[in-house]
Amino acid sequence: MLNSSNSNGAFLIHLGTNRCFVTKAVNGLGLSGMSDEFAVLHRKGQTEMKSQGEIEAAISQGLARFELEYMGRGPKDIQTHLLGDLLVVRLHGVLTAAEQHLVKTAQVEIGRDLLKQVRTQLIELARPLMESMVEEVTGVRVLSLHHDISTTTGEEVVLFTLVESPVFRETRQR
To answer: Looking at residues 158-171, what average pLDDT do you find?
Structure first.
């Protein structure tokens, strides 16, 4: 076990044979700014370091669950890409039957604008929930969230800008 600290308080790094744990020792809050060898922990106290793929999969699962529970329909497909301090989530097939009908009305611009306004308002209301999920998975605070939806293809894009790049364990290339 290695004891260390940073500006956020004390933490413990536990090194095992195949595992690395980091435990927050003050206030139960996650840490950031550690070396690339170690993962940043979320509020639950102790977790195993995640790979980039595991982080991306957890974000995909969290946003798919959010879409299903909060918007009423889950995506047909979802991809998440962690690119440095950017987290890009692309969701396919997110429009409900009512939304699809709305954008095909005689006044297409009105239906499109109304759908975008409603979706944007819902995302803004749910922003704290979505940011909390991303912060818990990545261990890094969200700086900003950007969102858009295509009423033509039913594709939605959510972009999270993080305060810094999340730390993750490297995986072996095959």
So the answer is: 93
